[in-house]
Design brief:
The chain has 248 residues and is an alpha/beta fold. It has 9 helices and 7 strands; from the N terminus they run H-E-H-H-E-H-E-E-H-H-E-H-E-H-E-H. The chain starts with 26 loop residues before the first helix and ends in a 6-residue tail after the last helix.
């Protein structure tokens, strides 16, 4: 029997399930859509407003690391009592492909510093970069959302699938899971099944949707796809709430 997918949310159990400005308030979204957006209304507010989200692209992450590495204590002025209410954010490093930088000294130092200060670090990756977890031990404390490219990307198979890298992430990371975008125009299940046969992991699927209309048209298909195959459905709440607006 297929596993019943998490179509609806329960309270998030992650110890650090919040982002600077947006919190993934539910378990499915803490793993998938928290990586792009979150429910700001669930975040404890300070000084009357939500804090800003921290979502680093691979293009600016090295510059950001240099600018912030000496000033990560964002709440040094709060009182001990109010500090107890503060939730550490999830720091999401996305791209491009962020793991292209994983051997860079400054990049690695930045990740180590974030972890040392109690931040949860998530990576969004296509799963093609092999990470030497024994040499770079800090990555064992990170979470990886892995989105292998499928054949509809028009990328050659040898460039989009690295099963050794996928198995390494699964075996060594704090947590890892697959995230796929599905649509009626392409049957993703055979290729997802092939990836799972090579390296099994939890699967989250979201509908394609750059705007509300496209999202609405694809959501039912995605839900049915998840029910049929035993996957988790993950919505695009940022599109539903803000539409095509940038920076959310």
């Amino acid at each position: 029997m297929n596993k019943i997918p998490n179509l609806f949310a329960s309270s998030c159990s992650l110890p650090a399930c919040s982002a600077l400005g947006f919190c993934g308030a539910t378990e499915p979204f803490s793993k998938s859509d928290t990586l792009n957006f979150a429910a700001a209304q669930r975040l404890p507010r300070q000084n009357g407003s939500a804090e800003k989200s921290l979502n680093l692209t691979s293009e600016n992450s090295l510059n950001f690391a240099a600018q912030i590495s000496s000033n990560l204590n964002l709440h040094s002025s709060v009182s001990p009592q109010s500090a107890k209410l503060y939730q550490k954010p999830i720091v999401v490093i996305t791209g491009g492909e962020p793991l292209l930088h994983h051997k860079e000294a400054l990049f690695y130092e930045f990740v180590c510093e974030l972890l040392a200060r109690g931040y949860e670090v998530h990576f969004e990756t296509n799963g093609t970069i092999f990470v030497d977890f024994e040499k770079f031990l800090a990555y064992k404390s990170c979470v990886f959302a892995v989105s292998p490219k499928l054949s509809n990307s028009a990328e050659p198979r040898e460039r989009r699938l690295n099963f050794a890298a996928l198995r390494s992430l699964k075996q060594n990371a704090k947590d890892s899971f697959y995230k796929f975008v599905v649509s009626p125009e392409f049957d993703a299940q055979p290729e997802i099944g092939e990836i799972l046969a090579a390296c099994e992991s939890e699967v989250y699927c979201m509908p394609r949707g750059a705007d509300r209309r496209e999202l609405e048209s694809g959501a039912q298909f995605c839900v049915d796809f998840c029910l049929k195959n035993g996957y988790n459905y993950s919505d695009r709440l940022h599109i539903r709430i803000w539409g095509e607006k940038d920076g959310v």
